[in-house]
Amino acid sequence: MPDEFVLQNEKNGHVISVAGNPNVGKSTVFNKLTGLKQHTGNWPGKTVGLAEGTTEYQGSYYCLVDLPGTYSLSSNSEEEEVAQAFIQSDLSEATICVCDATSLERSLNLVLQIMQLSDNVVVCVNLIDEARQKGIKIDIEKLQSLLGVPVVATAARQNEGLDDLMSALAKVVSGEIKMNPYMKEALESLKGNQEENTIALLDRATVIAKDTVVFTDEDYNRRDRKLDMILTQKSTGIPIMILLLIIVFWLTIHGANAPSDVLANIFAIIGDYLNQFAHYIHMPEWLRGALIDGVYNVLSTVISVMLPPMAIFFPLFTLLEDFGYLPRVAFNLDKYFANAGACGKQALTMCMGFGCNAAGVIGTRIINSPREKLIAIVTNNFVPCNGRFPILISIITMFFVGSSVSLGSGLLSAVLLAGTVILGVLTTFWISQLLSKTILKGIPSSFTLELPPYRKPQIGSVIVRSIFDRTLFVLWRAITIAAPAGLVIWMMANIMIGDNSILTWATDVIDPFARLMGLDGTILMAFILGFPANEIVIPIMIMGYLSKSTLFRFESLDQFKNLLLDNGWTWLTATNMILFTIYHWPCSTTLVTIYQETKSSKWTWVSFIIPTVMGIVTCMITTLLAHLFRLV
């Protein structure tokens, strides 16, 4: 592995590694110290991201590098390999090792491993406030004596102890404080083969924890155990998951309608002004049409349709994550993925796919096994992303619920949408099992799944993180792809061959095949042209039915439904539309991400072909059965 990582900050100062187990508040410590002065990059040749930020203390600059959360440095995964390599690199002058005060013994194993690699270590015992609430007392001075390195207690969320942490770090970097030589010698003596070293470090971590931690309340985690009895039990775990899914979808559907309409109206007004300006400066009609009817209309549609539900869904998703519920989801689904020959961590990447399939693909980095990572990547598209929700919601509401806006109809839409999502999840299990028995044969690996303590989410932090790290990131990526797509769509709708446009000719060519799927050429063409972003599928379909040369938006679902009925839609068309929305090729953003993660054209094509074939075959079978039993 290369040992050079290019830092982006102009005033790098002293480079400090920030390491720790997952769920110990490591990134909170990093964020509190660096504020918004951050940059994210990848270690050369790896897909693991490293967040880098600067802070100033007593006139000196420090460049903190937030390493991926790991339980060890045994190089069993990219995260562990990168963490170990950076700590040992010439760049890193010292390491802050963040521990969980409520579970110190588990964290000390990593501390001791890091101390074997580096002489300059500062131990940050974080979440000390939670430890106090649970009656857990830690003798910090004794812990510092036993470890032989500086130990500082912090509660990063409340900014408690961070000044002391920086003071200790400054002394370590300057050489004023050094590791106890006896401890250094003792750690050196433990080194043998990896297995022996690990066992020895675990034993020492246990001894140190017993000598420094006192539980004044032996039943300190009673509340967590009671919640887990409900949320992870066989009889209640899955039903509660489904109920929470319905609630999240209901809030997303019910809350996004009005903001979407407001945004669409604002963009329509702006569009009118843009057209007036184009006429005022005598812009050529072809250029006006390409820029406004094409690029602008597609972009405004993507934003107005995509932004409101994402701005609701991602914060809700992040709240569950902060609360500590998502690891319970992985726990509940672990046996199902194991039976499918996959990894239980795939449950977490699947959840990420609800917001964006590209994000779900990136999330597969947490899976250590290359085989199981590929299974998770190939099947991630079966979970409908945020861009497909508008299609599903519209069709479900118009044909199976009714277009009236009420709490009851919104709840029924959420239930049916949840049912659709569950179908996608079941398909994920089935395809994962099929892959594990054919082209990706293997035995499912075991992994350590930590169930972190339940914590009260920080609402402000959740909103900021979900909006900036997820919503705007995904939206910007969709915009950069949708803009050129708008130009292509406009050209196809406006360049004529004889009496018809290229769009009409192409639609007529694929119509017979689409009819076999219970669809029509206009629907299938909308999916094809919607390859850059699923959000534009419905506008393109409307444009095709109305023979418009620009994207068109209805004022109500009733108007939209009447247009579909006039063009031959039935319940079967609506059903196949839903099925094909779940089972069709990934969007271009997801495919690009798949290639970046796998570095393989083969697996990118496999990820494209499997859901596409699944969608075509499923729709054809549904259509055949409907006609066979004379249901249409």
UniProtKB/TrEMBL annotation:
GO cellular component: plasma membrane
CDD domains found in the cross-reference section: FeoB
Transmembrane segments: 236-256, 262-282, 294-317, 347-368, 389-405, 411-431, 474-497, 523-547, 568-585, 605-629
Family matches, as InterPro entries: Fe2_transport_prot_B_C, FeoB_GTPase, G_FEOB_dom, Gate_dom, GTP-bd, P-loop_NTPase
SUPFAM superfamilies assigned to the protein according to its UniProt record, in alphabetical order: P-loop containing nucleoside triphosphate hydrolases
Superkingdom in the source lineage: Bacteria
Molecular-function GO terms, alphabetical: ferrous iron transmembrane transporter activity; GTP binding
Pfam families the record matches: FeoB_C, FeoB_N, Gate
Record keywords, A-Z: Membrane, Transmembrane, Transmembrane helix
Domain FeoB-type G positions: 13-175
Protein name: Ferrous iron transport protein b c terminus
